[in-house]
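Lab notebook, design round three. We kept the backbone fixed and only want residue identities now. Task for the bench partner: fill in a sequence for the structure below.
Input structure tokens:
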């Protein structure tokens, strides 16, 4: 697996398409255990990311993801904006000067991203947050040869498992046991991010080189 700058840009575009398609669903999930703004926050942020990306050109993957991160921090808002922004910013540090990202570099970037989410949000696995998707997907990327169906399935199962967890962080924590009736909105948006990655590895210029 070798993701070029173009393939990674396609990943971002695909994330945006999925977020726009699922905007209402994400906000409905957040309505049940939060303030109902997650879909709108993410849709606003990723739309702006795509606008900025289309107006620029990138020689390497680090500068692409730095711009993605800074835009998410400034445009998404809520708890999730700084957390996603930190995740992509930490990944961009690992991808500085790289013109392609192979599986090892993807694992390094994701490891830094997960550390960033943990440091910033002080959540642990099982607290019913986006981390409950990022951590199992990181484990998969670190330990298995990436294959698109199993990457998607890993993210999907992790997202579905947040139903049944009691929220310990963020607004959802105020709902206590009642929070366990539904999927965490940030886990769902994270699932869309990795579903988009899986699709781009096939369609978007990923190669076996
Ligand atoms: P807000 O809660 O400020 O309205 P959003 O609705 O955009 O922000 O995002 C909520 C999502 O953010 C949650 O579903 C959860 O996945 C994630 N989240 C909230 N707090 C944390 C945290 N401390 N660590 C990791 N993820 C968190
Ligand atoms: Mg919210």
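Proposed sequence:
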């Amino acid at each position: 697996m070798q993701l070029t700058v173009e393939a990674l840009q396609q990943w971002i575009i695909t994330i945006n398409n999925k977020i726009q398609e699922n905007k209402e669903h994400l906000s409905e999930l957040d309505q049940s255990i939060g303030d109902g703004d997650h879909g709108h926050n993410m849709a606003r942020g990723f739309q702006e990311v795509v606008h900025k990306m289309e107006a620029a050109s990138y020689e390497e993957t680090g500068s692409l993801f730095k711009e993605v991160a800074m835009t998410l921090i400034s445009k998404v808002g809520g708890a999730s904006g700084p957390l996603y922004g930190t995740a992509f910013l930490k990944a961009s540090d690992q991808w500085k000067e790289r013109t392609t990202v192979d599986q090892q570099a993807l694992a390094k970037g994701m490891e830094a991203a997960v550390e960033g989410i943990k440091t910033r949000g002080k959540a642990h696995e099982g607290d019913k947050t986006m981390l409950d998707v990022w951590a199992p997907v990181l484990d998969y990327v670190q330990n298995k040869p990436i294959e698109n169906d199993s990457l998607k399935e890993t993210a999907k199962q992790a997202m579905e498992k947040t139903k049944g967890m009691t929220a310990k962080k963020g607004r959802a924590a105020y709902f206590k046991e009642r929070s366990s009736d539904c999927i965490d909105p940030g886990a769902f948006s994270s699932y869309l991010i990795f579903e988009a990655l899986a699709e781009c590895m096939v369609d978007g210029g990923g190669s076996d080189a």
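Keep this in mind before ordering anything: Residues 204-209 have pLDDT under 50 and may be disordered.
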